[in-house]
Amino acid sequence: MEKFLLDYDWTVLAPELTIAGAAALLSIIDLVLKPNRGRHILAWMALAAVAAAGYFTAIRLGAPPYEILADTYRVDDFARAFKLILLTGTGLVFLISFREFREEKGFAQGEYYYLLLTALLGGMVMTSSADLITLFVGLELLSISSYILAGIRRRHGESSEAAWKYVVMGGVSSAFILYGMSFLYGLAGSTNLFTLRERLAEAYNNGYESFILLSFFCMLLGFGFKVASAPFHMWAPDVYQGSPTPVAAFLAVVSKSAAFAFILRIFLIAFLFLYQVGPGKETVGWGLWIVASLSMVIGNSVALKQLRTKRLLAYSSVAHGGYLLVPLAALGPTLFESTLYYLLAYLFMTLGAFTVVMVVERESGKGDLSAFAGLSRRSPFAAAGMALFLVSLAGIPVTAGFFGKFYILINTVTSGSADNPGPYWLAAIMLGTTVVSYFYYFGIIRMMYFRPPQMEGKLRVSVGPAWVIGIAVLGTLALGFMPQWVLDFLGTLDWVSAISPLKQGPVGQ
């Protein structure tokens, strides 16, 4: 039955419409404000819009899935859970940004605030898309906004270099994704993910398996760039180092989470049949296992040699991208729950760590690890928070990071068997590389507590960063001390609908 625009329940798009309206309003207000006027009101308006969108998303958790716009846009628990992660991460980034650029000359504060909103909107579109076209539109909206944000410090050479490298590598990754999508459309004659799954399975059985596998690996390569997984991670250290620290935190948490939602949507819908056939299952499985393993090994190994803090966190992000690929590679029984739990833990511990790095860099004027020397004496609060975030990233009990890795390991091991030993190898590599990560994480802790300070006086932590550090500490501890509560809640959400087409009827049709 054909439906018109007014026939849809547009309230399901309240979060996206809130963010889009706020971004448009902020851009207009920024244009009419005088150049010498402060833009702090824009930051508060953007934060209010993020909070409102979070409320609209949270109240619909557990509601039946709904499809809109000719079944190209799907609002289900999968999308809502990822949107809450994206909104929380962006809200915390706004909090640490309030005073960061106030005294910097030539910084386009207005553009910074609404570009963060457009990047967030792109990520939200990616989480709900059930069509290749809307997926790519969301991806490019997020990517283009991120390119500009990386180079928004126009007077800084490192920032311009970061933006240039990001644009080039991002363009290459988009080209591979589009190339892979073109094969899918050519074989199936549709861009809808659920239609693709049905028709690609037929094409695979009719002798087109090589083209389908080629499209899969082209898209895997493109996604590898987006989530900074090895060996496609070469842009991440330079971009994180050159970008403003709040932007680097946004890329490490929000952009990566949106990209994983993108990966799960496509691989578990359009390519789900590949996991169920003999040769295809082995090929796809080994492809994902290799990328996950390389990310864990290279990310943790290269981080050992880093002397600059943001580059170290960039390689740490590469390693954590490998950990997050493990559930998809193993395809265990708690894939969604373990992935969402780890992303939530990763949000708090990574944003908290970047916030402390921002405060220390601003005070010391340098980004080396030596800037953390004696931090425990200059700011016990910041040092204790950073130590907690680092031990959580390392996976030390009882922290959010420990239980995040524990649930991924359980999910991985339970999916292995004598005929399928790959998950066991993944679990072994994950354990081994986690031990390696202790050396560089605890190296920062050693600097904070066992080295004399290089500067005199107390470290000033302004209100916004102090709030973010406090929230991140509470989130990391809560997930560490009450993991079962969070996992039980995630278990109540309807994950099956994320990979299942809706039945014809009054809901969503």
TrEMBL record:
Residues 129-416 form the NADH:quinone oxidoreductase/Mrp antiporter transmembrane domain. It is a multi-pass membrane protein. Its EC number is 7.1.1.-. It is found in: Cell membrane; Membrane. It is an enzyme of class 7 (translocase). The keyword Transport applies. The chain crosses the membrane at residues 12-33, 40-58, 78-98, 110-126, 132-152, 164-188, 208-228, 249-274, 286-305, 312-333, 339-360, 381-404, 424-445, 466-487. The keyword Transmembrane applies. It catalyses: a quinone + NADH + 5 H(+)(in) = a quinol + NAD(+) + 4 H(+)(out). NCBIfam families: NDH_I_N. Belongs to the complex I subunit 2 family. NDH-1 shuttles electrons from NADH, via FMN and iron-sulfur (Fe-S) centers, to quinones in the respiratory chain. The immediate electron acceptor for the enzyme in this species is believed to be a menaquinone. Couples the redox reaction to proton translocation (for every two electrons transferred, four hydrogen ions are translocated across the cytoplasmic membrane), and thus conserves the redox energy in a proton gradient. PANTHER family: NADH DEHYDROGENASE (PTHR22773). NDH-1 is composed of 14 different subunits. Subunits NuoA, H, J, K, L, M, N constitute the membrane sector of the complex. This is NADH-quinone oxidoreductase subunit N. It comes from Salinithrix halophila. The gene is nuoN.
